[in-house]
Specification:
The complex is a heterodimer. Chain A is of the alpha/beta class. Chain A contains 17 helices and 21 strands. Classes of the chains: A alpha/beta, B alpha+beta.
């Protein structure tokens, strides 16, 4: 920049940006792959002018001279609209490893300029905090000499859970004797793939997840289930036998439900369950959001909307005005649509009002569970402020709800499904086991499966997280065929299987030393400890140092 | 690991027989406690089979409080047996005042009550006394039930038996359960000594129940009188048995289906799969885990033994018509019934419930894969 050019308030230097591109002139081949792959056009071909000064040896007649040359290279743009997001795809494609993005160690100034035109920053990903209370929980009750520890590799394990309203033993026996109605219950694997919509995810990603889930069920006998998110369900899947592995989600936009309702007479199987989304941990109290970039013809057709328009779901179901309406009637309507053969449960964001919802559900005989999504849950698109500052941690919320069920003696009747930041630092099995022992019947993951099964680059350290604009460099959350063809659905399916099989082994490695194998250790809080007195007291687990 | 021994006999047997069997298995318990359950009593107690017997340990003031409390409620004392203790307790056993076994006649008003109501009131009375005792540390109450005596004390079983003089005619019984305790997990507490008892149902266990906390939380919130205490992780086995029989109205054959339900293929191929799947789901919080051998006695004096899902604990049943015994080790059987046909000894495996009906004619084996008896 010339020294006398105008400096606007949002004129930043490369140093002010959160990510800086390091480029090596000596190894760069100028192949141009990095500039082509960059999802946000943060780098471009740079034509640089360079002055060289030559000074002849002393005593000779020649005077010092200078000359100008031109060289080509990579230039990082400093316009806030084109700031590097740190995805480092440039490094991935570089044949000579000549370029990489490096995180700044000082405060980045970009965050003060991400509201151009008065439009605050939106993004995908999770709350920008790597901290996790779940990571701090230890499993302390190990059987060794008091009783033999179990062998995770050889003993039989029953690590299934139930989704659905489980009747109390006396009522269950009575209903059976009298041929009465009993609520539908599904025996499933306790790790669910949570709601990520067809639309938020690319077709290849969705297909890969579905194939992985089908393989786990049909070849490995693991009853893994996946939720559709709010975006409808491809018509062929609705009419296939694989629908039984799917949890259909309905949310406040009702996207795709015209198609689903019309497909009911042609369904070969009932879906696993129906999830009514009232809230999401990443943006509690805010609606869903699919930005116009991602609404192509296919998405528009499945959702029953015109293409190219943003699809915000309202924060609440507009036809309802109270908890009785929103929960009871909605659950009953959805149950009725499938003849009361499909469990229907609400999903809410973790909140200090969760107990009120739970207490309402305990009195509703058709409520099949409660999914609670904590503040660390991921999302495809939300305002940055919602993601970073709104919401309730999942650990204490799920614990409060479980203890409340225990007080009512209904801890077996209404399953709690926990989600939100499980495995955010890679410790999926440990986090899931901790949630189960705090009282969750099952655990939902979303972001984790994107990271593990498809190589999502997003982190809680401000890396990538552009799921919202459809430019996902891995093709996971993009609707642009030029991007999503990078993702091979078969490979995603393979990774889904790897993740689940690996998780299963790790879960056994946790529960076996605790002497548990015959049933999932839901609420086994005596196994848990934490080196934080306040957290221990709050979660009613042991304080260990 | 605690050692268990129980016998069921057509004729009256001295409790010392069971202690002799425990003595034989002495390597397996550390003398941290002994518990004895006696039922189908002979001697003077046989005249009062319908009246509740209070078993417990009292101080002088505790005894007076107990008498005042029960007479205040209209109970009339009948036969009383106070164990004559020797001068000095064996090492490790505290000196206590009164080991009481007292028959009471319930208030007249009880005559109009239904049997379930009487049972609930007797349980509530025991709990009231137990709570009073815990407040003032002056009484420990083990049972208050017709035709049942329970004795518990800390120390080596044989030394305690001699100290309390258990080899006396008044204590002869046809059903005897005894446990020599190997304390592994919890503090030594009289209420933590097995067997545990509720409303005619007794059971004792060895091994650690790793699912204790969730089961305890579930049982104690089901609103059933008596589901409390839980000084030992094994007390839940007794209460699950009670829940199975009394709350759900099922038979002993269903007990194992509740504590260690069948899995996948076995369940799928079972003739009662719908009922059992339903039971497995609705009683999921009662599934036990960990290595356990459970021996129990039912209100009709049937005795049984079941093992955990993986059969990680020893347990053997054997005997001859008229006298059968369940034991942790075969040497325990040898000590009491040396003249039995050892070829017929049976070690229940992970699917079995070994049952000896009160007629003591044979051991019946019930496999989980077999059809359940018809449900009423």
């Amino acid at each position: 920049m010339p020294a006398n050019s105008a400096v606007t308030p949002s004129t930043l230097s490369r140093r002010d940006l959160p990510w800086q591109i390091r480029w090596d002139i000596h190894t760069c081949t100028l192949c141009g792959r990095c500039t082509a792959v960059c999802p946000v056009n943060a780098i471009e071909l740079g034509v640089f002018r360079k002055r060289s000064i030559s000074s002849p040896p002393l005593g000779l007649k020649d005077k010092p001279d200078s000359s100008f040359s031109v060289y080509h290279g990579i230039r990082q743009r400093t316009d806030p609209g084109y700031a590097c997001i740190g995805c480092t795809m440039c490094n991935l494609v570089c044949p000579n490893n000549a370029i990489e993005a490096v995180k700044t160690e000082t405060t980045d100034m970009l965050k003060f300029h991400q509201d151009r035109g008065g439009q605050p920053r939106t993004r995908g990903g999770r709350r920008n905090s790597p901290q996790s209370i779940l990571d701090q929980i230890k499993f302390i009750r190990i059987s060794m000499l008091t009783d033999p520890a179990l062998d995770a590799g050889r003993h039989e394990f029953e690590l299934r859970t139930l989704i659905g309203r489980v009747l109390s033993p006396a009522k269950a026996i009575k209903a059976q004797r009298e041929n009465g109605w009993a609520p539908p219950v599904r025996e499933i694997y306790p790790l669910l793939i949570g709601g990520m919509s067809f639309g938020a995810l690319s077709p290849n990603m969705w297909e890969g997840l579905q194939m992985g889930v089908a393989y786990l069920n049909e070849e490995l006998g693991m009853p893994v289930r996946m939720c559709t998110g709010e975006g409808g369900c491809p018509p062929r899947l609705l009419r296939s036998r694989f629908l039984k592995y799917v949890i259909l989600q309905i949310a406040s936009g009702y996207f795709g439900w015209d198609e689903i309702i019309h497909a009911i007479p042609e369904m070969k199987e009932d879906p696993c369950a129906v999830e009514i989304k009232y809230g999401q941990g990443a943006k509690p109290g805010d609606g869903g959001l699919l930005q116009w970039h991602k609404v192509n013809k296919l998405i528009a057709a499945i959702r029953g909307v015109p293409p190219g328009v943003s699809l915000p779901s309202p924060p609440t179901h507009q036809t309802k005005y109270s908890i009785e309406e929103a929960v009871a009637k909605m659950i009953q309507s959805m149950s009725m649509a499938w003849g009361f053969r499909v469990p229907v449960y609400p999903k809410i964001s973790a909140s200090s009002t969760s107990l009120a919802v739970l207490n309402n559900l305990t009195r509703n005989p058709y409520a099949s569970g409660l999914a609670i999504d904590g503040e660390d849950g991921g999302t495809g698109a939300a305002y940055n402020v919602s993601m970073n500052h709104m919401g309730h941690p999942i650990a204490s919320n799920i614990r409060d709800c479980y203890i409340n069920l225990v007080k009512l003696g209904m801890q077996n009747e209404l399953p709690l499904i926990a989600g939100g930041g499980t495995g955010k630092n890679g410790n999926l099995a440990a986090n899931a086991a901790a949630l189960i022992m705090l009282g969750a019947s099952a655990v939902q993951i979303g972001k984790y499966i994107m990271q593990a099964a498809a190589g999502c680059l997003g982190t809680e350290g401000e890396r990538c997280n552009i799921c919202n604009i459809g430019r996902c460099p891995k093709g996971i959350t993009s609707q642009d065929p030029r991007l999503y063809r990078r993702l091979d659905p078969e490979k995603v399916a393979e990774r889904v299987v790897d993740v689940y099989v690996g998780f299963d082994i790790e879960l056994k490695k946790i529960v076996a030393p605790l002497g548990r194998s015959t049933s999932l250790p839901i609420g086994m809080s005596d196994a848990l400890g934490i080196a934080h007195e306040g957290a221990a007291r709050r979660l009613q687990i042991s304080y260990v140092v | 690991m605690c050692r268990l021994f129980s016998l069921t006999s057509r004729d009256l047997v001295s409790p010392i027989k069971a202690i002799e069997a425990l003595e034989m298995m002495k390597e397996g318990h550390d003398g941290s406690g002994i518990g004895i359950f006696l039922s189908d009593l002979g001697g003077p107690f046989s005249y009062f089979t319908e009246l509740p017997i209070l078993s417990g340990i009292f101080t002088q003031s505790g005894l007076r409080r107990q008498e005042d409390f029960l007479s205040g409620r209209g109970f009339v004392p009948r036969y009383r047996l106070i164990l004559d203790v020797k001068d000095d307790p064996p090492p490790g056993t505290p000196k206590r005042e009164i080991y009481l076994i007292q028959v009471y006649e319930p208030p007249e008003s009880w005559q109009d009550y239904a049997p379930e109501q009487k049972e609930r009131l007797m349980t509530q009375t025991r709990l009231d006394l137990s709570h009073m005792g815990q407040e003032n540390k002056d009484m420990v109450v083990f049972s208050f039930w017709p035709d049942v005596i329970m004795i518990k004390e800390v120390g080596d079983p044989m030394e305690i038996a001699v100290y309390l003089g258990l080899d006396r005619k008044e204590l002869f019984a046809r059903r005897i359960m005894a446990q020599g305790r190997q304390n592994t997990n919890y503090g030594i507490n009289l209420y933590a000594c097995h067997p545990f008892f509720i409303q005619g149902i007794a059971s004792m266990t060895n091994g650690e129940n790793t699912a204790f906390v969730p089961i305890k939380e579930y049982l104690s919130t089901q609103g059933v009188v008596g589901y409390e205490g839980y000084y030992s992780d094994s007390e839940v086995f007794t209460h699950i048995l009670h829940f199975t029989l009394k709350e759900l109205g099922l038979g002993i054959e269903a007990y194992k289906h509740i504590i260690t339900p069948l899995q996948d293929i076995d369940l799928l191929n079972h003739p009662d799969r719908d009922f059992l799947t339903n039971l497995k789901h609705s009683c999921r919080r009662l599934i036990i885990d960990g290595p356990n051998c459970v021996i129990g006695c039912l209100p009709d004096k049937t005795m049984f033994m079941v093992q955990d899902r993986k059969k990680l604990r020893p347990g053997i049943v054997g005997g001859k018509p008229g006298l059968y015994a369940f034991s942790s080790e075969s040497c325990g059987l040898d000590a009491v019934i040396p003249d039995r046909d050892k070829k017929k000894d049976f070690q229940p495996m992970h699917l079995d419930t070994a049952i000896v009906p009160p007629d003591c004619k044979e051991v019946r084996i019930c496999r989980q894969t077999q059809p359940l008896p018809l449900q009423h």
